[in-house]
Design goal:
Elements lengths: L6 H29 L7 H20 L8
Helix pairs in contact: 1-2
């Protein structure tokens, strides 16, 4: 049986995910603006696809079990 994650572990995991999502997608947008502004906004694919995963992570965070509950 797996031990339950602590509150700090839940928060760290979510904020880490948000940090890398923002950093990576901002970098892609900057690359798009500087290298290919006249081409279709290709960072959209990453923003939407990864955003879906981030949405699931946020939902899991909000509905996580509390420590000590069965």
């Amino acid at each position: 049986m797996k031990p339950e994650k602590s509150e700090v572990a839940w928060k760290w995991g979510l904020w880490s995910h948000v940090f890398w999502y923002v950093l990576t997608n901002v970098a892609q947008v900057v690359l798009w603006v500087t290298l290919t502004p006249d081409i279709f906004f290709w960072p959209l694919y990453s923003i939407l696809a990864w955003g879906i995963g981030l949405g699931f992570h946020i939902r899991a965070f909000r509905t996580r079990p509390t420590l000590g509950s069965s």
